[in-house]
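Re: the 486-residue chain
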Amino acid sequence: MQNIIYLSFVLLLLACTSRPENPIVVEEMPNIYPDYIGVTIPAEIAPLNFDLSADDADLVDVSIRGSKGGEIHSQGEYADFEIDEWHSLTAQNKGGKLTFTVCAKMDGEWKQYKDFTVNVSPYAIDEWGLTYRRIAPGYETYSKMGLYQRDLSNFNEYAIIENTQVPGMCVNCHSAHQTDPSKFVFHVRGNHGATMFQIDGKREWLKAKNDLLGGSMVYPYWHPSGKYCAFSTNQTRQGFHVIKDERIEVFDLSSDVFVYNPATHEILTDSLLQTKDWSENSPVFSPDGRTLYYMTCKQQDYPVHYKDEKYNLCKISFDPETGKFGEKADTIFNAVAMGKSLTWPRPSYDGKYMMFTLMDYGYFSIWHNESDQWLLDLQTGEARELKEINSEKADSYHNWSLNSHWVVFTSRRDDGYYTRLYLACVDDKGHFSKPFMLPQRHPMEYYSESLFSFNTPDFTKTKVEFDAYEAGHEIESDKRVETKVK
């Protein structure tokens, strides 16, 4: 009797996963969510699970064949691939293609769509995962939010720290040293404000505001040596639009740029980076550590002339041995001359490019639908719009992988309201592949039920080790390290 039951179960299982017989072939692509058709992926990425977003399909059947060999199969309510089988297939086809055959069963009949392909890049991603902030799109108060990390090879997400640790707390502006979280920093806003440095497992909580600077330490970026971390100090304000399709505007009453030395708790300043009539913002170091890039804007009468807030990209030399800045600052991309504003400069780690976001005005690009990604060639000085990755909605908040062959960025292209994470491959000539949304186990369910936006993503080469429980106590203790201006 037991053998009969077991045999019946096996036959039933085989029947449920058998391939479609004599499907009706249609000359149209499957309407899948997310859109993975024609994208380029790293072999290490989690499975590209997807839903068939058009038609009311009872079953979805997907076969994937590799150009260099191998095949896997999925059948169910959506395309759900077994992780080990997926990675075996992608590893075998690195530098090749995967061909997807999608069938849908509707009203008892199978329909087969046109095949589509996905490229498996020859470039490894060489990173364990991503870090990012997830936050509900509110303005004045914070629901549950925090900093999180995600293993790129599967669907596992882990909280680094959440605001449930300390009521009313907001965490933002996190950064690792060239994707290495052994040196990690983030900022805490709220009644227990602080800037947290964790270096080789040891944490320090800096006083949130240095009165000599006139603001907090935000928008951090590590020096390649790990000896310094650049910041800006911003007196941020926000206003609300009263016209359709525009919600909020963020601007700075003032902002300056400086460099911090964690070993000495010294803040290194320079008169060229702390001017009265200009706002310096969002500093980043060059990969060789001898140049500090930043954006700068002529101060305006805010909020009256908020549309005149327009930033250029500048640079100044920096001597890491002495901590001294150069004697002049240069503009290397004049966005204002184009009637535009530049924000979020990020150099590739190989020193070839500077990726930035261009918008009509301001610098808080996440609220600007016209914001697009651009690429500046640091050798030739030529810049171009990255049409291959841009959309009609806000594209912003990008970072590079350490090998400079992958970028992660945020976009509202999915539904126009929430920012999602997208990845794209960059080849040796600076060409970008079609972006793909960060894979999820059941993407339609995940994104339709999520009430959070993703922002400030970055790669991380290992998992961030952080004791959120102890950190919560340390935040509430208000024990802070004083910084001094050199």
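The chain has four helices and 36 strands.
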